[in-house]
Amino acid sequence: GTKSTHNSALAARKFAYIVERVGFKPQTYIDFKVQNIVGTADVGFPIRLEGLVYAHSTFCSFEPELFPGLIYRLVSPRVVFLIFVSGKIVITGAKTEQDLSEALTKLYPVLMEYRKANVAPMPGLASAPPGLPAAAGAGAGNALEMPPLPSADGSVPMPAVGATGTATVGEQREVEDV
């Protein structure tokens, strides 16, 4: 698994070189095709998965006893989302990085509709522990930061898709955070 098609081509050439050093004659041109791109995103707010699966049951499956994420199959572009309550998303099945971006652009307004509204802070994080300054409590990054709401024209700021990568010849790739 690589992070770009250019790196995939370099890896294919290196592999051909290794095969040649062992004593076999590889092809002069190695043709490969990107089969799958995986990306991750964090929308920055928790999501009500039960409400989402109830309203979009034709596209979703959610079995919390088997897997904690909701599986959302988008028709066009043909990608699959793994959506978790925390707001973290894995996007897989895209053929191009454009497909990743387009898919998240389509799904983001739906996710905004099912964002959890009243999220209580974890107990004990509202105040600083004894002996620490007040900034070490809720104001030190422990509180959940909510992204901005839609503007007057209805546009919603989009999260960036992170850690995109390509895979070659049908292999799945693991994603690392950037």
Which class best fits the helix and strand makeup?
alpha+beta
**Helix run count:** 3
Q: Which descriptor suits the 3D outline?
A: elongated
What is the helix content?
10-25%
Rg on CA atoms, Å: 21 Å
Strand order of the largest sheet: 2-3-4-5-1-6
Fraction in beta strands? 15-25%
The main β sheet shows up as: 6 strands, antiparallel
First-last Cα distance? 15 Å
Mean pLDDT: 76
Could you characterize the architecture of this molecule?
By secondary structure, this protein is an alpha+beta fold. Helix content is 24%, strand content 20%. It has 3 helices and 6 strands. Strands 2-3-4-5-1-6 form a 6-stranded antiparallel β-sheet, with helices on one face. A hairpin with a 4-residue loop joins strand 4 and strand 5.
Question: What descriptive keywords fit this protein?
Answer:
178 residues, alpha+beta, six-stranded antiparallel beta sheet, 3 helices, elongated
Kindly summarize this structure in a few lines.
By secondary structure, the protein is an alpha+beta fold. It is 24% helix and 20% strand. It has three helices and six strands; from the N terminus they run αβαββββαβ.
Topology of helices and strands:
Blueprint: H1 5-22, E1 34-42, H2 49-55, E2 60-61, E3 70-74, E4 79-83, E5 88-94, H3 97-113, E6 162-168
Antiparallel strand pairs: 1-5, 1-6, 2-3, 3-4, 4-5
